[in-house]
Design brief:
Blueprint (H helix, E strand, L loop, with lengths): L3 E7 L3 H6 L9 E4 L2 E5 L6 E7 L7 E2 L2 E6 L13 E10 L3 H9 L7 E7 L2 E10 L2 E7 L10 E9 L2 H8 L7 E2 L6 E4 L2 H4 L4 E5 L3
Length: 205
């Protein structure tokens, strides 16, 4: 069976996500598509995740705390902001080749790569698929830093990008064309809402 995401642990209070238009369950979690977002944990940003069909004994993926899960896929919730699923997870790394090798070691396959630049420096994106979620690994193609990889941000697909932006009002940036052809995106002003993980909303594929 392919590896899929069961839960992403985020060190944010549930009320911050409610303010961003997400439906939060009584237990403090948030079901986005088949992925559960665990809120209220200690730390800052994304502090770890659990994956289904993970090879036994895996507790870390190049610095990202990782546990195995036997949980069934979450039952999608209905969110006021129209979110339907986690579109992609962005993973930043100081050592791209090392992180890609760690992901391949658990059975993930590179789907595609894209080269670009960030602040004038070369940057490469390497894409994997974990069920309905795309994992986008970003780093310099030649860097060999010693630090850990980290989950930098989450992008959620919404049914109606204009309606989502209107709901959140000043808490989002103006909707614009996304890098992905035919799609549009807005960035949530997370600091104003008390959300510690970078968050964007994107139109459907």
């Amino acid at each position: 069976m392919p590896v899929t995401i069961a839960e992403i642990l985020v060190a944010d209070p549930p009320e911050a996500w409610r303010a961003a238009g997400f439906a939060v369950d009584d237990d403090g979690g948030c079901r986005i598509g088949t992925v559960r977002i665990g809120l209220g944990v200690e730390g800052r940003g994304v502090v770890g995740w659990s994956l289904r069909d993970l090879p036994a004994g895996t507790t870390d993926l190049d610095g990202v705390p990782t546990t195995g899960s036997a949980d069934q896929p979450a039952e999608p919730a209905r969110h006021p902001n129209g979110t339907t699923h986690v579109d992609h997870v962005v993973l930043l790394t100081p050592h791209l080749a090392r992180t890609v090798a760690a992901l391949e070691s658990i059975g993930l396959d590179v789907r595609r790569e894209r080269d670009g630049a960030l602040g004038g420096a070369p940057m490469r994106q390497v894409f994997f698929r974990l069920g309905e979620v795309v994992l986008e690994v970003v780093g310099s193609p030649d860097a060999t830093g010693e630090g850990p990889a980290s989950i930098w941000g989450l992008t959620h697909a919404v049914a109606d990008i204009d309606a989502a932006a209107a709901l959140l009002g000043e808490h989002t940036t103006p909707v614009k064309d996304a890098v992905q052809p035919g799609r549009r995106i807005t960035t949530v002003r997370t600091r104003e809402l008390g959300i510690s993980v970078r968050t964007a909303l994107i139109s459907q594929r």
